Amino acid sequence: MPPTQIIVRPAEVKDAQEIEHFFRHVRRRYITFGMEDLPQLIREGLVFVAKTGGLIWGVLAVSPKDAGEWGHIRGVSIIDGWQARAGVGLLLYGARSHLRNRGVRALYIILTEEWLHGPLHAHGFVQASRLGTYLRHAHSIPPIPRDPAALRLVRPDDIPQVAQVDRAAFAPLWSYSARELTYLLALGCRMVVAEMDGRIVGYACGEVIGDIGHIARLAVHPDRQGQGIGRQLLLDTMTYLHSVGVTRFSLNTEIDNPQATRLYESLNFRRFGRLIPVLVKDIGEK
Ligand SMILES: CC(C)(COP(=O)(O)OP(=O)(O)OC[C@H]1O[C@@H](n2cnc3c(N)ncnc32)[C@H](O)[C@@H]1OP(=O)(O)O)[C@@H](O)C(=O)NCCC(=O)NCCS
Question: What are phi and psi of 233, to 5 degrees?
Fold first, then answer.
């Protein structure tokens, strides 16, 4: 158990180097960001360091989602030799009032690290869904249907409308704000939009990662779902990614999302690897 004088406080930019060093040298770490993003995460004010006698023993990094009241756990780490369950509990307890002051009412984590399961469950996290990875080879792509929507590449001034479609299509946990969509574009994602009657009704985003074409986003406005627009957008994105030389496609989706999984399976995507749990915890109540 941790000894006395435990301090959990928001990190400052001057702590970045020490935190980076800590992350590099501990065995139990869950990190979903590059170290170059650490100063920005710290500036956003939701990275917490836990110290005892000047020594960092734990770090928790949370990104607030623009939409809604969700905080996305992006990093957790506990020093070697300490009990993970106690350490994670103290980090969450120490961070909670800061998170609440920033409007975060619930936390979620896409849990790829086995060692975190027990500690998070012990502190009230429950499984909300499971993500599956789908793969497909990049040849034999069916032609892109011409109907019902007209497809074109996104323009910067489309982003607010794309964000509206995204918000209508996805639950708050998964939706992207205009800022997050702009960030995707800046990272090199190729975005195509579907238009009907002069309105954007859907969009897809595909990115190249090595020889893999990753379908990062696909959404159709609920009023227009089931009309073949998702299939058009997906095939357009696959055709583009194939044209730039990828040999396989990948995507992640909730396995209990029948619209999406049926569409992917009908185009010969196959589930691959283990399912990744998504855990959530309400921190809104007193
Ligand atoms: C998944 C999504 C993009 C599909 O777009 P869509 O335009 O509704 O899909 P389409 O009309 O092109 O349908 C393609 C296939 O999807 C499946 N599908 C579509 N609507 C469905 C429904 N209500 N129930 C079950 N399957 C459905 C069918 O297999 C369909 O093939 P079919 O036309 O041969 O029956 C859309 O439902 C959506 O935006 N959902 C919310 C966001 C999301 O889940 N995105 C994907 C997560 S990665």
Answer: -65, -40
